[in-house]
Amino acid sequence: MIVKRVIPCLDVKEGKVVKGTNFVGLRELGDPVEMASAYSKHGADEIIFLDISATNEGRQTMVDIVRETAENVFVPFTVGGGVRTIDDVTRLLKAGADKVGMNSAAVANPTLITESSARFGAQCIVVAIDAKKFADGWHVMTHGGSKDTGIDAIRWAKEAEQKGAGEILLTSVDTDGVKDGFDLELTQAVVDAVRIPVIASGGCGSPEHFPEVFKATDVSAALAASIFHENTFTIEEVKQSCKDQGVDIREARLL
């Protein structure tokens, strides 16, 4: 059995960690470097760092913050936001990221996935899919969840894998920040469609939501932001909840 992963996500805008509901109503929560370092020391299996305004504002991801964060983090570290070219991928990996996430640019130019995977290996390439439920299924949303592409999210997940993605970061726009739990139906649909690991994101509001998604779907990892950033629950509490319900999880080794 594959050991499940617990991942804190740092959504960053203008150098500060932020969080909102359904991708809007953002509020500042803290310094990304300090928060990433603390999670690394307190049991996170991985950390994801997303510059959520980079695509909309036409900026490059904040490489200096990425470099400083990577120097203080001792677990695998994914960086995304504003990744548009192979040079962006190169820059982020050189700054210290273990993996690079891409969303809007990958939808607009799927060859970016193929080129990046060929140069650096599929294990370095994470395709982020923000999906929203419509009458005809889930659509891929881009530009911070604000633009409906009309593309079927399940079909896009399959294509991303075929193009060379090594992992899917799946966020439900409908449940993001709502704290009622992960979108189990969407998550399992994507997991069933691909063979690469899938990270569930959007909707976590309590430690019990982690074992719930791990037991109800075959997802490889689950991600949360608010419950960790607001000190509502700790990574240790989440992992204990998983262990209590029989989920195979890594021990929270404190550094």
From TrEMBL:
<dbReference type="InterPro" id="IPR006062">
    <property type="entry name" value="His_biosynth"/>
</dbReference>
<dbReference type="InterPro" id="IPR050064">
    <property type="entry name" value="IGPS_HisA/HisF"/>
</dbReference>
<feature type="active site">
    <location>
        <position position="11"/>
    </location>
</feature>
<comment type="pathway">
    <text>Amino-acid biosynthesis; L-histidine biosynthesis; L-histidine from 5-phospho-alpha-D-ribose 1-diphosphate: step 5/9.</text>
</comment>
<keyword id="KW-0456">Lyase</keyword>
<dbReference type="GO" id="GO:0016829">
    <property type="term" value="F:lyase activity"/>
</dbReference>
<dbReference type="InterPro" id="IPR011060">
    <property type="entry name" value="RibuloseP-bd_barrel"/>
</dbReference>
<comment type="similarity">
    <text>Belongs to the HisA/HisF family.</text>
</comment>
<dbReference type="GO" id="GO:0005737">
    <property type="term" value="C:cytoplasm"/>
</dbReference>
<dbReference type="InterPro" id="IPR004651">
    <property type="entry name" value="HisF"/>
</dbReference>
<comment type="subunit">
    <text>Heterodimer of HisH and HisF.</text>
</comment>
<feature type="active site">
    <location>
        <position position="130"/>
    </location>
</feature>
<comment type="function">
    <text>IGPS catalyzes the conversion of PRFAR and glutamine to IGP, AICAR and glutamate. The HisF subunit catalyzes the cyclization activity that produces IGP and AICAR from PRFAR using the ammonia provided by the HisH subunit.</text>
</comment>
<keyword id="KW-0028">Amino-acid biosynthesis</keyword>
<dbReference type="GO" id="GO:0000105">
    <property type="term" value="P:L-histidine biosynthetic process"/>
</dbReference>
<protein>
    <recommendedName>
        <fullName>Imidazole glycerol phosphate synthase subunit HisF</fullName>
        <ecNumber>4.3.2.10</ecNumber>
    </recommendedName>
</protein>
<keyword id="KW-0368">Histidine biosynthesis</keyword>
<dbReference type="Pfam" id="PF00977">
    <property type="entry name" value="His_biosynth"/>
</dbReference>
<keyword id="KW-0963">Cytoplasm</keyword>
<dbReference type="InterPro" id="IPR013785">
    <property type="entry name" value="Aldolase_TIM"/>
</dbReference>
<dbReference type="GO" id="GO:0000107">
    <property type="term" value="F:imidazoleglycerol-phosphate synthase activity"/>
</dbReference>
